[in-house]
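Problem statement: downstream parser choked on a complex file, so we are re-checking the raw output for the adenosine monophosphate run. The parser issue turned out to be on our end (a line-ending mismatch), but while we're here, posting the original submission so the record is complete.
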Amino acid sequence: MTIARILTTKGREVITAQPHRTLLEISEILASRRIGALVIVDAQGKLLGILSERDIVRAIGQRGAQALDDPASSHMTSEVVTIAEEETLLATIERMSLGRFRHVPVLKDGRLNGLISIGDVVKYRLAEMEREQSALREYIAAV
Ligand code: AMP
C-alpha cells in the first residue's frame, strides 16, 4: 500500500508550529488536538524539525517545569526522517522501527504534504492483513 493511498482517506492536514513557540504552547496544541507530535516549520512552511511529547517530557525531566518556557527550537529534532508519497507503508514501518519514533512527515516536491503516525500504521496494516487473509481464504476455498 502506498502512502499516497493512505493519505487519500486519512487526509493531508499536518498540524505545525513555528520554532519560537514555547513548550507550554506546544503542549496545549498537542492536548487540544489529541496528537503526539508537531512538525516545526518556518514562516514559509519549510520543514525545520519535529517536536514530540517525548521531547517535552525529556526537557522537563532534565530542567524541571521552567523548560516549559523554552522555545520549540531548543528541544526539537532537526534531522527529520521523512517519506515520499510514492513509497510504501512497509517502508514507513521500517523507518519508524529503525529510528525508534512514531511520526513520519510526508514530503511532496520538498513540501510538507501529510503525516503518518504509528496509529495510522496499525490501522492501515491491520486492514491490509485482513484483505490478504480473506484473499487467501477465497483462494483455498476455490482449489
Ligand atoms: P516519537 O516516538 O514520535 O514521539 O518521537 C521520539 C523522538 O524521535 C523524539 O525525540 C522526536 O523528536 C523524534 N522524532 C519523531 N519523529 C521523527 C522523525 N520523523 N524523524 C526524526 N526524528 C523524529
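For whoever reads this later: The helical segments are 3-10, 23-33, 53-63, 89-99, 118-142.
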